[in-house]
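Subject: sequence -> structure tokens, single chain

Hey, anyone have a minute? Need the predicted structure for the following. Not urgent.
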Amino acid sequence: MALFAQRPNPAAITRQYLIHATTCIITSNVPLAQYIFEQYILKQINFVGMSMSQPAHIEAFFDPTTWTISYVVYDQVGGSAAILDPVLDYDPKSGRTGHDNAQKVLDFVHAHSLTVTWILETHAHADHLSAAAWLKQQVGGKVAIGAKIGTVQQVFKTLFNLEADFATDGSQFDHLFEDDETFAIGTLSARAIAVPGHTPADLAYQVGDAVFIGDTLFMPDVGSARCDFPGGNAATLYQSVRKLLNLPAQTRLFLCHDYPPENRKPQWQTTVAAQRAANIHLHDGVDEATFVAMRTQRDKTLGMPMLILPAIQVNIRAGVLPPADTNGIRYLRIPMDAL
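Reply:
Had a minute. Here:
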């Protein structure tokens, strides 16, 4: 029985459950009333657990080549951890991959005696290759992404004319998160939040008062993510951002990228309050139509990311490189005049 579409506050939980339960008692449906009270208790426990869980420890890793920030989120030294948006080094001139960025993450995990339970992708990135598969080989953990990844895979399987048996159901990943699905990182309570718009499969991950927002918002002086990739939609991104900005004002937002102006160094942490007050594209008072018009016009001026062609081919495979050809060498495909 789904009585709430979104996570309500405790007063709303009490009021609506009591109304439903009282109605059942009046109509002599005592078993249903008992069920409703049980669900009320479960909702209370879930709400309190998410809002009062211990704070997460967060370590950020900045890659200056792709302007990407990866994270390790953990409950305690010697405890459990999740790795978010890890970067596989890639030289587009030579086609060689490397693990310098991922090794820094791995060294941190070992230094803090962490057990990796999750490797979380906010979406199939177009600006860097994912090191998820390599890290899984080193430390384990489930590689996870949003449940809509199949939509992205279908588009790019066609564009790259991938092998016939390439699956477009997300089965390359160990877990596909649905919107509002909860999970644990050791003793930490976490929640997946669907935030489509940049792509159809974008997710944010909430851990206590911290939310890892992927490519939705950037720092307030940079604005918002582009929406002109296949399946992207500016109106959808607007709604996703409003969902994030309806969180409590002090909620910390951790970015996946920063493209700073010349007068400041890269940053990757902000708050809901700061975004609502100063985001140049989506501060309070910007309506959907205004944002869509701005975002659509701006996207027309943007070139493709430098690594979009290699990155997408790897990232829709959960970070696994394409299968080797008959000569034992792996190849990436470059579609001509198609984008």
